[in-house]
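Hey L., structure's done. Input below.
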Amino acid sequence: MYDVVGVRFKKAGKIYYFDPNDLEIKQDEYVIVETVRGVEFGKVVVGKKKVSENDVVAPLKKVIRVATDEDQSIIRANRTEAKDSFELCQKKVQDHNLDMKLIDVEYTFDRNKIIFYFTADGRIDFRELVKDLASIFRTRIELRQIGVRDEAKMLGGIGPCGRMLCCSTFLGDFDPVSIKMAKDQNLSLNPTKISGICGRLMCCLKYENDDYEHLKNILPDLDDIVETPLGRGKVVGINALDKNIKVEIIGKDRVAEYNIDEIFKEGAFSIGTTEA
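Output:
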């Protein structure tokens, strides 16, 4: 078993696990750690816990120290300089007439590297741009092309629901989302209704998908013929989350509403697929 702490380097970013190195580290504290990108500053979002060997990626890197006030000052200075670097890089992009959109600039904690994030429709030849930036900043330069979902995560915004974007507030990873999820939830397939501001299917379609898949196995479909306490009827409405169905009773010009759990409990409900 290993002792680990979970560290996040960006708001709503992925959680990475590190060896606490016998340090007294509490949740919500800031720490300095060694990463593949160099020395980084992050926030402990998962307190010390034990995990099995199969749950860690070896070698497990160690926490160097708990962050000090001086470390916090370095981070603030890096963020301020990143804003100036953003404007300078934008000007250089225009000078080189490159068809790319600069999204964000990030300094590593030790200032060993500057990362420029951008979006573009295709591949960009930015070799000359990198040479220009390296001659100005005198450090390692990385230009990283990202997708539209990552762009929305970095920039933030307000979704169609009126709340701050999930990706920029709490989602660490992007789960696959498919049009089938919208169909299973009886949502309008109008792209403007089920797409986020990134132009991709909304991440929230995934949230209740497992429940809908389970309910789909126990609920009848629209137009199914069912037996009810009032007689045979056709399903004309479904409220999946409440497990309610509306049934038009055949020959009685009446629509009744039933809860599946209650009907099954009474043992007076069955589903058929043959029209009366």
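The longest strand covers residues 38-51. Residues 69-95 form the longest helix (27 residues).

-- N.
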